[in-house]
User: What shape does this take?
Amino acid sequence: MPHRTVFAAALLLFAAPAFAQDESSPVTETASALPAPPIADRRPHSFTAHGVTIEDPYFWLKDQGYPEIDDEDVLEYVRAENEYFEAVMAPHQPLIDTLYAEMRGRIAENDASVPVPDGPYEYWYAYNEGQEYRIWKRRPVGGGAEEILLDENALAEGQEQFSLGTIQVSPDHRLLAYSTDTDGSERYVLRFRNLATGEDLPDAIPGINGGVVWAADSASIVYTPVNENWRTEVAMHHVLGTEASADTELYRETEEGMQLGIDQTQSRRFLTINAGDNVSNEIRLVPLADLTADPILVSPRVTNRLYDVEDWPSEEAGDRLYILSNQDHVNFTVYTASLDEPGTWGSTIGGSDDYYITGLTVFEDFFVVEGRERGLDQIDIWPHSFAPPTRIAFPEASYEAGLGPVAEFDVDTIRVDYESMVTPDTDYSYDIASGELTTLKVQQIPSGYDASLYVTERLEIEARDGTMVPVSLVHRRDVTPGPGTPMHLYAYGAYGYAVPPGFSTRQLSLVDRGFVFAIAHIRGGDDLGYQWYLDGKLDRRRNTFNDFVDVARGLTERGISSPGRIAISGGSAGGELMGVVANEAPEMWGAVVAEVPFVDVLNTMMDESLPLTPGEWPEWGNPITDPAAFEYIRSYSPYDNVSAQDYPPIMITAGLNDPRVTYWEPAKWTARLRATRTDDDLTVLRTNMGAGHQGQSGRFQSLIDEAQAMAFMLTQLGVEE
Assistant: This one.
């Protein structure tokens, strides 16, 4: 997901109210019996860059005390928008309740994950009936009494928002490290629990982000705190029983834009410290048996080169490193190196135009390479001798598959996760020796599900530059798509994130009402390889937007739907996509749902003091130093390109505590849309006042947001009232 904040400059304060009710707006059929929407005050503000002056009359909606948000003008406006949203949706509450009940009915109230063996125990989580959150458990391998390690429901009690950030059992299985966030700000508090007594230790470390890694002796831990700008720049070592102020630095990153992430190799011999941005990185290894040892730099950072590292301790081959990198081929290559000379790489599995390698996991007797061939997931099992691999075969022509959780290093089976747009999530065990797939669990749908009632297909639509863009579709078998068929079209299209053709119980509420649900695998994701991602970023960013519009037009030309019968949605960077296509092809959409949308792109990328902006320049461009990047971003930035034209009905969401797409981006966009659009269709904004980027927490509570979004689509397309 993208990480966002926004432009900071001097705020001009005026005595005018924050917003006014639009008394002059005509009452339309769409908005009859509704109160007038809030009209945000316009306050003069501008900045000049590269000889261009940008007017930003809604700049004041950014609280200048952020991350503290206590400006009453701002809060008054946000609350007024929420009240208007509630008024708009109130007549449709019966539909919202029905959708919620449908989606909840497809969730198993009593559910559990498949236990994962780890040493003397196997670990899993479970849900109890009516509970929002997980209960983490374990029991001895081979059977025995189960223990409750952590009950998220107890931790979440009394909290409007709750998120478990990390949960890691110590190597000796006596302690539990876990982190929690209760306001959506993604600044987690790290705590430690004695599993014998169930009591938390006095140690508590606030303000961390990301995972933690235990030392081999279970007496200390490594974590990454966030600084005041919500950046991770240092890996810290904490010895249990000591004050956090005594923690020591293992590594500090000094290059602006680079952030740190930590992990451990599958062998659990090494801590990995990864300093990187979206396109370049370098990794250091530190023995988990001796965290005071000097970090081993695998290879210095090189612009536009990414790599990942696993290790394989072998008496025959010595200490071998496996390295996955795009150094020599855009679709990545697997290399080996010795621990003594980690920067000298020898190619073993060459890159391929047809096969894009996405993952590498090393086990004692084999290693697993994950990838996509012509956009379809593949899992290959390789011997360490590099003899020809075994590919796991799957039964459907279009699906999502990947390596599931495997905690140990010396294993003879692995877990495989599998699903498709018509097949519920299925957990398999794969036997390395026999090649047999054994079903461990199939996702339960208590209200019932019959896969034979649905059909899925994969199409290719030609974009305006001749590129063929894949589209995954699902609809009921008894629905024959035609020009009047309603469609929900979804995409993301950024950061190299592929939207897989997976199973969604939530989308069934639309599909069962006659919708076609479609996923556009547009450039900007890496659905068809790493080049697919490169072709949708920086000065090729417009390919992402064009692909989406061209897919929609291509589907209507094939008679699958028609302009105005397509509801579209996307979140975060996908929300940016929604903003651009609403500006550029408004006639195509019957409804737009933009969730926590990154829409104030130019302002955000112009302020290097904001939390994550420097690290985002490789993705979007640096408009501060590069006039061409400035003009290019300005040409598509949704907020800056709202124009006096008719727009489709638009529903926008935000989280007041969101550190990635800050609340004022959706608020500013809403204000400008409502003031500028020339029609009377709806623009509504719902801000979760106690939530962050992920919206409401809890497995049931989050369904309310989904039910509201679906109700908006259904009512605006006239499918249901």
